[in-house]
Specification:
The complex is a heterotrimer.
Chain A lengths: L12 H5 L15 E7 L5 E7 L9 E6 L25 E2 L5 E7 L2 H7 L4 E6 L6 H4 L15 E5 L6 H6 L2 E13 L7 E7 L2 E6 L4 H12 L6 E4 L15 H13 L3 E4 L2 H7 L2 E13 L5 E13 L4 H12 L9 E10 L13 H19 L3 H8 L8 E2 L6 E2 L4 H12 L1 H13 L5 E10 L20 E7 L5 E5 L8 H13 L6 E5 L16 H28 L6 E4 L2 E4 L2 E7 H7 L16 E6 L8 E10 L6 E11 L6 H20 L32 E4 L17 H17 L14 H8 L4
Parallel strand pairs in A: 1-12, 10-11, 14-15, 20-21, 27-28
Antiparallel strand pairs in A: 1-5, 2-4, 2-6, 3-5, 7-15, 8-13, 9-10, 9-12, 13-14, 16-17, 18-26, 19-20, 19-25, 22-23, 23-24, 26-27
Helix pairs in contact in A: 8-9, 9-10, 9-17, 13-14, 16-17
Chain B lengths: L6 E4 L3 H11 L3 E4 L5 H6 L7 E4 L9 E4 L2 E5 L4 H5 L2 H6 L1 H8 L4 H6 L2 H7 L5 H8 L3 E6 L2 E6 H4 E3 L2 E2 L6 E8 L6 E6 L9 E6 L2 E5 L6 E2 L1 H8 L4 H5 L16 H20 L3
Parallel strand pairs in B: 1-3, 2-3
Antiparallel strand pairs in B: 4-5, 5-10, 6-7, 6-10, 8-9, 11-12, 12-13, 13-14
Chain C lengths: L1 E7 L2 E7 L5 H8 L18 E4 L2 E4 L12 E3 L13 H8 L9 H14 L5 H7 L11 H12 L5
Helix pairs in contact in C: 2-5, 3-5
Classes of the chains: A alpha+beta, B alpha+beta, C alpha+beta.
Amino acid sequence: MSLVGAKVLRKEDPSLLTGRGKFVDDLSPTNTAFAQFVMSDQAHANIISIDVSETIKMPGVLGVWTAADFISFPNLPGGMTDFERPVLAHDRVRWAGEPVAIVVAENRYQAADAVPTVLVEYETLDAVTTVEQATAPNAPMLFETRNSNVLTKVPMLDDLEKHFTKSHDRASLRIVNQRCAVVPIETVGCLADWTLDGLTIWATTQAPHHLRNKLASWLDTPQNLCRVIAPDVGGGFGAKIVWYPEFFVAPLLSKWLRRPVKFMQTRSEAMVQMTHGRDQVHEIEVGFEKNGKINALRMVISQNLGAYGDPTGLGLATLTGWMAAGCYKIPHVSTGFRTVVTNTTPVAAYRGAGRPEATFSIERIIDLVALKTNLDPVKVRQINFIQPNEFPYETHNEAVVYDSGDFPQALDECLRLLDYDAAKAQQAKNLADKNAPLIGIGFSCWLEIAGFGPNGSLEGFGHLASWESAQIRIAPDGSATIFIGSSPHGQGHETFVAQIASDELGIPFDRISVIHGDTATVLQGIGTMGSRGVPTVGSAVKVASERLMVRAKKIAAHLLEAAEQDIEVKDNAFNVRGTPGKKVSWSDVGLTSFQPLRLPPELQAGTLEERLFHESPNFSYPSGAYACVVELNRKTGKVKIQKMVVVDDCGTVINPLLAEGQVHGGVAQGIAQALYEQVSYDTSTGQPITANLIDYLIPSAPDLPNYIAGRITTLCPNNPLGAKGIGESGAVGSPPAVVNAVVNALSSFGVEHIDMPVTSEKVWHAMNGRK
Amino acid sequence: MIPALFTHVPVTTVKEASDALLHYGDDAKLLAGGHSLLPLMKLRLATPAVLIDIARISDLRGIREDKNKLVVGALTTHEQIENSTLISKYAPLIGAAAKLVGDPQVRNRGTIGGSVAHGDAASDLSVALFAANASFVATGPKGVRVIPAVDFFLGFWTTALNQDDVLTEIHIPFAQSPNWSYQKFTSRSQDWAVVSVAVSGSNIILGAMGEIPLRAAKCEEAIASGADLEQASNFADEGTSPSSDTRASADYRRHLAKVLVFDALTEAKQRP
Amino acid sequence: MTVVRIKLNGVPQQHDVEDRTLLIHYIRENARLTGAHIGCDTSNCGACTVLLNGKAVKSCTVLAVQAQDEEVTTVEGLSGDFNGLSPVQEGFRQQHGLQCGYCTPGMVMASTALLRENPDPNEDDIRHALEGNICRCTGYEMIVNSVRWAAENGGGK
């Protein structure tokens, strides 16, 4: 029985379920000291002085450090010249929450007492929190070496005006994709132990090898003396790719104090120090025909980067521009963008990283075209779809060639699961009954760019490239250990890797272990992000297994005195096809692989090890069709999701349970963005006003619906598994389905658009004709 | 996350609690379930030097009948109130409100006394008890006072309890009318009320529409003079001063008050 | 400072701690059981949920000293017939009720408490019983399925 495609229960679970997981804060070697940042309480200010005279007298305090102590060290890696971020604010703070000093104490209680005694004198400057404010004339400059807050700008090459004027009609929309906080339930932290043998640092990171390489360079230490371990990581969603300052200063503190040093953010610290997501504004123009066919699409993106250009934050607008046309065959597409710094928390990748923003906009545009042409939004999608026989499909950007998909089939399946006719009938019935809630039906046909990725396109993106590694080792008893370069934070890598390997190797699932996240045991890896787990590391495992099997079969053939081509593997043993009873076990083969005299002459001891770095020639393009039915309370405006249908095409599914879990989680975050979440700032002072979980609304179980999940499958032609990845799909596809449904419900009020989060108050305003 | 240093002083009788309050003065606060106080202390918005822990005063637990009222010990948890047969028989409004406080873990620790003593206008129990014409029994150095709800809530996080009072019991008269309702509008299920309304007989009380739970006096008058429910509920925001925050603007709260009053009156009227 | 005695998973603990020590820190740092986790500082997320005298509480909002001479059960104190896992733990495993595992101990304890009080909860009951526990990975449906599985296979043992 093939394990690939089966609902195999997870290897990871027993340990996590019994509280035996090892998250960073669970690790406390003897003598660990606790470090905590002193954060700026000003959004934009010059630092006049820092007085630690009371702090050093506080009980248990081992020391206080400021930027002066790190002056011989570089800024944090990956930033843009003139806009780089220091480990600690030097002479200026640029957002409320920026670290200004470090207190280390014997324990976190004493650190918490000491931190408030650090007295920082500030000269308050004007603060800007939005792109509009930051680019207004006379806006305060965050970086005085430049006289602009615009970091990067790629203007549109062509404004497509002639195509708009030639169209039957045109429409425009300004869309705000609001800033979200990522909020994995585990915050960011690290434990650094720098002894005379070298440095080991356990960190909440999605990319341990990248971190090790950067850290070693920053610390001016050879990589062999710098070990980074990502232990169990409690969710990441992109925010744990970031090179946080604690990862860099903790090793030095450990070295200087000669003891292990731990940082662990409280949630209030995390709300302002963990990178945020989204925060784009789009100005969109569309030209279309009477039948809904879109001729031209123009999109200008403004990306709020926060106070510093994070390496992943800088790339978001590019990805958005790449995916601006979604599933549709639009002859003329033009995009441009600018990225702007403001006095807010830095923005970086967050589940979907630029693609949810693109999808939201194109899917809202489709519905706007439907409104203007008085056509069913389903029809407008269908008439504009790229057809299944048009792949590979070259988009308006040469880096982006969609590989495969069947958008019409996905939508058909979605309509079937939705029972579109019944939903429309109920909608009409409720409209006529003023005691019944208003019903809205919304769709989202989306695709996204995943499986990061091919080397060529990603040079500029630092760690979003490219290959991924897997190394398989067979032990003398025939059991296997697989070392992978992509480490999980909930995706189930240990399980799906073992499934793939088990099918190829014929070794039982329970006799395969998977090791990840440790730079001392895994040669090199990129990490887990960009929905690349199955496509890259899964493919690496498959190919490595195939190559190893060639030699394993040679050994078996030699032992069985049979022809290699007649050897097959099944149930932990090698058989000879056509000769039942003649077999050797994997244990026999494993043992033999270390016994030179018993091996075929062309093989050496230790031959049953294979390492592979798998490179994809292209990204992969998961896609899907989602539908949402909402009920709007006519009096309060409260939105309730009655039905959420999600049809995904992720190519080959390794484990349906894991795949569906990823979709559920992504959809939950998408619905949360659509209805609940918003990072808010006081626009005059720059103070964050949603910096804890009372005010920042992450929904819990009664606030979210069930999900009706379906699947279609078109294989990815770019990797041996045919898998596209699915980790971000739910977050990409769901927000527009929800918002389209709300706008649809409000169509009798003449509403054309509503910005996220669609709170009950916004709906109430819309129903009453105000903004 | 970490409270400032304090000294924990456990007591086992009301007298010990009173004496301790006298002794420590303004340095001390009472600790019951801790679910109003500890969250503030963890954010260092409150830094009492002494916590007088009254949670083990057994006299302050339990619900009993006393002629035509229920006597509820101040340490009774929301969960106990939610599941009490006496409450569901004689004061179902209170049980309905208790059921909506926070989440199950909060309800297992939070107490009725702690909740009302905190003086938050959004407190579900405060609003419901006000509508039920409850009284609050305080024991102080000068003796015992029975404070009717109408005199109990004074301002933002301020009640008629003095620094040296221990709230010992809550008296809830048996509901005279079968008409009651508790309506609560929240952003998420576990949240504090954005706006709430408690109706008991002719009483209509609003939560989170000002610094204290407020009587919707104009609504009550309108009903008394024969207005229909919709007309009456239009007066819901009169005399209120709701705030604007990230959850809702003052305007929207005013609108919600009207909607919830209407819904509450409708539900109350439909009870047999 | 107070010497706080707590029976933790049936084992008597005794530690001399500052009065302000939160129960979650007593459990994790004094008793060194790291199953219960910390996810927030405003009593919203429920990752710290344990049973105090059998009732689900947020141990970040309880002082250790408030649990003096009481019984506390954490996820490490659960066990059962499913290769050592309790029905709730096995339900989460069977129905993929966990991904990163960080909120899981709190979810498992809250679910266990639910099933001990209500052995046959419907979906609405389960969602409301878990309203004080936040998960960012699963979207909750598979957690609901996990609790239903446990209800049908031994309940809140």
